[in-house]
Amino acid sequence: MSIKNGLIAFVASALILVYYVIDPTISNFGLPCLLKAATGWDCWGCGGQRAFHQLLHGNFRQALHLNALVFPVVLLFGYILFSELSQQQPSYQWLRRNDVRISTAIIVLSFTIFRNIV
Question: What is the pTM of this model?
Answer without folding.
Answer: 0.86
